[in-house]
Amino acid sequence: MKYKTASYVAVPVLLTFTGTLGYLTIKNDWSFEIASYTIFLFTLIYILILERIIPLKQKWKPHKLTIWTDIKHFIFSTALFDALGKTLALSLIVYIQKHFFTSSNYWDTLPFVVTYIIANLIGEFLPYVYHRVSHKGNSNSYISLLLWKIHSIHHLPTSLNWFKTNWIHPINMLLNTLLKMTPILFLGFSEEIIFLVGITHVMIAYISHANIQTNKSFLDYLIVTPQIHHFHHSKKMQEAKNFGNIFPFWDLLFGTYYNRKGSVDKVGVIINPGVNYPKDKEYLKQLVFPITTTKDCCT
């Protein structure tokens, strides 16, 4: 194949760029905000190019009929509520430290790389638990069903690409960010570590949903690659595991990791006669879906 090599280096190249820019930003005391936006824009352009030259499935390409829904999810569901989650997390930690205690400088005694790894694993734990519980959909529990209804919006698309990364209910986005950032801020990690955790999250979150050909490799055990995250969106329940958003560590530890050679067949929610999931273009219905469905909507 003409672009076979690209499928092998697609993820490593993005990791290298992000890591290099992150290192240079910290070393040269550059603006964290500008560096973060630069990485976001590079990731966007890079993935869109890859999706044209090495698409995993032609039918997964962005469609003009749903592009406005894609944009609404990006602006309102993702960008706005991610920022809100970070603000709430920061406000909560400032309040706790002001009225109860301040964090120590313990992390400064550890090697920087070790601290970075620990911060990522800690930041991933609560989102992993929340994500895993959200997939239960226990018909005997209103809370369990509510969590699935909220999270199901992310699984509505029957295709995966850069745009579909942003298909997420605002409450889901808010909780993901709040659960990730609160422990990291609470434990007193440095601004540099938080910056690196943030750019790592953005880069992996988008590349893991990309419509690109990749190959099963050792990277699948280190980060959440397209190879393993596509399976999470599978309509086959035995494949729909891998609840880690950025790293598969907790999946490997708790036995929810799944991988195999080849690629996922079909993605999306399992449609049953009694289920009335919102349509692709019904953004407002997707927003109110969690509170307007009956208890037995998803059994």
TrEMBL record:
Sequence intervals crossing the membrane: 7-26, 32-54, 74-97, 109-130, 183-207
InterPro entries: Fatty_acid_hydroxylase (IPR006694), Sterol_Desaturase_Related (IPR050307)
Primary location group: membrane
Limits of the Fatty acid hydroxylase domain: 118-256
GO molecular function: iron ion binding; oxidoreductase activity
GO BP term (any one): lipid biosynthetic process
One GO location term (cellular component): membrane
Localisation per UniProt entry: Membrane
Keywords: Membrane, Transmembrane, Transmembrane helix
Highest taxon, organism lineage: Bacteria
A Pfam entry, by short name: FA_hydroxylase
Name of protein: Sterol desaturase/sphingolipid hydroxylase (Fatty acid hydroxylase superfamily)
The organism of origin for this protein: Tenacibaculum caenipelagi
Upper taxonomic lineage: Bacteria, Pseudomonadati, Bacteroidota, Flavobacteriia, Flavobacteriales
